[in-house]
Amino acid sequence: MDLGIRGRRAMVTGASRGLGRGCAEALAAEGVDLVIAARGREPLEETAAAIRARHGVAVTAVIADVTTDAGRAALREAAGELDILVTNAGGPPPGRWEDFGPEALQRALEASMLAPIALMRDHLPGMIARGWGRVVNITSSAVVAPTRALGLSTAARMGLTGWVANTAREVAGQGVTINNLLPGSHETDRIRRLDQDAAEREGLTPEAVRARALARIPAGRYGDPAAFGAVCAFLCSEQAGYIVGQNILVDGGAVARTL
Ligand code: NAD
Against a cut of 0.90, is the pTM above it? Predict the structure, then answer.
């Protein structure tokens, strides 16, 4: 299926690896020019070079921390007139409620709620003025189902989820859609770190933690970041223009619910 977005311009943050990179690659495969951002120069530039070589699209790499004003100013400058925005950054650390004081809470809110909202506030006006836009926020299945050790992720992302629920409906009439993609466990550095952390906490091997996790996922495996990226690209397509304000799980069936 032609997604109808060839020649569009997208920004993907947190794009040097993992799910953000999967989204950037899938958009590039559809002929979308990219601005990609992350904090570390080398992996980001390697990713940019690989995407240019594979897909022949223009890729601008911006070293930027999305939780800072300076980082977002650099992104505004590089982005120009964006058609598509995919917000993403590293997730909050695991732990229990008593591990998280005010500073940890503030950091989680900055990365998982305030930064994506600030990025949307930067780019929604241009999308609205041009009458077309697609925004996808990468959140987490932890938004709909409490997940062991990820209470901070759930708490911070709920604020973003609430903001999107209203804002998506305020801008839908102007050709702009906003949706959230909720990953379950995917094969990325983050899931490897989380498995390692659980292994240390519980005195198990990472392999045992992984096997236990896979047994709880109906699909029987961790997700593929490239396939996750393809779902993201579809949400950014011309055809997805009637999908508004949704929270779409990509979790191999791990969250058990009827609706
Ligand atoms: P990852 O740690 O593998 O990659 C994160 C990317 O974001 C990297 O490119 C990193 O450089 C970049 N980044 C981190 N902090 C940043 C910042 N402040 N500014 C700019 N760039 C930043 O993570 P991932 O597994 O790809 O997950 C992406 C998001 O999805 C995270 O928020 C994570 O919590 C969430 N998530 C992941 C999974 C999973 O199984 N992988 C499951 C649920 C939710």
Answer: yes
